[in-house]
Design a protein that fits this description.
This protein has 314 residues and is an alpha/beta fold. It has 7 helices and 19 strands. It has helices at 16-28, 63-76, 125-129, 139-142, 158-168, 187-194, 290-310; strands spanning 7-13, 34-36, 50-51, 61-62, 80-82, 86-90, 96-100, 105-113, 117-119, 135-136, 151-154, 174-177, 199-202, 205-211, 218-223, 229-232, 236-239, 243-245, 276-278. A hairpin with a 5-residue loop joins strand 6 and strand 7.
């Protein structure tokens, strides 16, 4: 690592499709970017098995392999990658300061944030054990693998309602498990769920266990009102109780919505701080796809390059 007196043109915090794409574009623009991978190099795709919806991989690709490809491409153009986490930032001056977990201070003219978001889980041992073996946090990503099979979705918000409807087009039956006696989803989303014949809503229901050894074979659910416990056979179990953006270290500096997603200028990657740009799932609570994350990574790099040119830094 260069000494803390050096001011980098571009530092990227976080990897995954957004961070690596930003690195490819920034390095091709001769910005000599430095990328800090964070605690999960490659982000959520590192816990994804088959990725079949990313253009350019006609046979599909394993998530970790795809991220390794992204990483190699970024390095090929000169990106310096550090397998470290950033623990603190200071965006008070024209030169931005960040600190690694080891305490090293790094200075940069521009910062691209691509720290992503993490799915919220139920916390069951069986859920962890069967992740990617029938347990998923993304119906759009993985629903295709469960065509013609019975599946379950956990959650009561808009995301759960959307995922249940998406799966209902692929699966003969979708069990929607709602913890309370009502959904948090918008009225129109609730109505769509209730009007979909092959979605069965289980009210006041919690998951006791996901059944199966090598793959999901069913679920043990409990009605909190009656106390009834029953096993229901399903092949897919989708957790849709929300995502948490990995943005807590920026809370004193950057504008966020109530759940912690970074706010950017519509159609751009600009944050409320000059020279700081946000990309990927750290600022996207709607699409959350690898391809959209990569797109915003490209935008952030181009915005950073324009900023540096306007300031006559490069």
């Amino acid at each position: 690592m260069a000494d803390s007196n050096q001011i980098h043109n571009c530092v990227i915090i976080g990897s995954g499709p957004a961070g690596y794409t930003a690195a490819v574009y920034a390095s091709r623009a001769n910005l000599s970017p430095v990328l800090f991978t964070g605690p999960e190099p490659g982000g959520q795709l590192m816990i994804t098995t088959d990725v079949e919806n990313y253009p350019g991989y006609p046979e599909g690709v394993m998530g970790p392999q795809m991220m390794e490809d992204f990483k190699k491409q970024a390095e090929r153009f000169g990106t310096v990658i550090h397998m470290e986490m950033i623990s603190k930032v200071d965006f008070s001056g024209p030169v931005h300061k960040i600190w690694t977990e080891a305490g090293q201070e790094v200075h940069a003219h521009t910062i691209i944030i691509s720290t992503g978001a993490s799915a919220k889980w139920l916390g069951l041992e069986s859920e962890k054990r069967l992740t990617n073996k029938g347990v998923s946090a993304c119906a759009v990503c993985d629903g295709f693998f469960f065509r013609g099979m019975e599946v379950a979705v956990v959650g009561g918000g808009d995301t759960a309602a959307e995922e249940a409807q998406y799966l209902a087009k692929l699966c003969p039956k979708v069990h929607l498990l709602v913890r309370r006696d009502e959904m948090r989803a918008s009225k129109i989303m609730q109505q769509r769920v209730l009007n979909t014949e092959n979605i069965e809503v289980h009210w006041n229901t919690t998951t006791e266990e996901i059944l199966g050894e090598e793959e999901v074979e069913g679920m043990r659910i409990k009605n909190s009102q009656t106390g009834e416990v029953k096993d229901v056979p399903v092949k897919g179990f989708f957790v849709a109780i929300g995502h948490k953006p990995n943005t807590s270290i920026f809370k004193d500096w950057l504008d966020m919505d109530e759940t912690g997603y970074l706010k950017t200028v519509p159609g751009r990657s600009l944050t409320n701080i000059e020279g700081v740009f946000a990309s990927g799932d750290a600022q996207d609570n709607i699409y959350r796809q690898a391809v959209t994350a990569a797109g915003t990574g490209c935008m952030a790099a181009l915005d950073a390059e324009r900023y540096l040119t306007e300031k006559e830094i490069v």
